[in-house]
Specification:
Number of strands: 9
Number of helices: 4
CATH topology: Cyclic Phosphodiesterase, Chain: A
Order of helices and strands: EHHEEHEEHEEEE
Helix content: 10-25%
Mean pLDDT: 87
CATH class: Alpha Beta
Strand order of the largest sheet: 2-6-5-4-7
Shape: globular
Strand content: 35-45%
Radius of gyration: 18 Å
Largest sheet: 5 strands, antiparallel
Number of domains: 1
CATH architecture: Alpha-Beta Complex
CATH superfamily: Cyclic phosphodiesterase
Length: about 200
């Protein structure tokens, strides 16, 4: 396994996911949503647990708890995806909520340009991992960046109550040239993410 890849010497179980990481400037820009919505606490969105700036990313596939002994097979499967996708550009714009604005569990920033390519990459990864026993997602892939999660059911403020332009704000652009296998260590103060492996997109457009 090349240097920087998942450590085959680890034991036990690891909580893993596959992600596209974001450049620091874009992560910084996205944290502005927290400040912009700060004055709206008490209008349905109180109790949000915000994702720390260094943890902002696009999840391509959540793997859950994986035996350390199986990580090498996961690494090989993900490595096989590299030549099947080529680099592409993404644009992050607007905010929304899952499952709906009136029943907020997750507050997200959307991806418009590049969403189709991101979905195709996620599908390639899912297809590669399925033979290893990772179930296919029941819901279709929706490219987004999770900004916060609601401790209790909440709702989005009406568009008239949002800061001007926030619902359609263009946060920035980034180029996806690789994806990563990530480890999540759950700590009392929140999760700590570490990159186990990085896979370049080497396919031709």
């Amino acid at each position: 396994m090349p240097a920087g890849r998942a450590n085959a010497g680890e034991t036990g179980r690891m909580r893993l996911f596959v992600a596209c990481l974001l450049p620091p400037g874009l992560r910084q820009e996205l944290t502005g949503v927290r400040a912009a919505l700060g004055g709206l606490q008490g209008r349905g969105i109180q109790g949000l647990k915000w994702v720390e700036m260094q943890n902002l990313h696009v999840t391509l596939k959540f793997l859950g708890e994986v035996e350390a002994a199986d990580v090498r097979r996961v690494d090989h499967a993900l490595d096989s995806c590299s030549p099947k996708a080529s680099p592409f550009a993404c644009r992050v714009a607007g905010i929304g909520a899952f499952p709906s604005d009136s029943s907020l569990r997750v507050l997200w920033a959307g991806i418009d340009a590049g969403a189709e390519e991101m979905g195709m990459l996620a599908g390639t990864i899912e297809k590669a991992l399925h033979p290893l026993g990772f179930p296919r997602e029941r819901r279709g892939f929706a490219a987004h960046i999770t900004l916060a999660r609601a401790r209790d059911r909440a709702s989005m403020p009406s568009p008239d109550d949002l800061p001007p332009g926030l619902s359609v704000k263009m946060f920035g652009e980034f180029r996806v040239e690789h994806f990563s296998l990530m480890k999540s260590d759950l700590r009392p103060h929140g999760p700590v993410y570490s990159e186990l492996s990085s896979y370049p997109l080497t396919g031709r457009p």
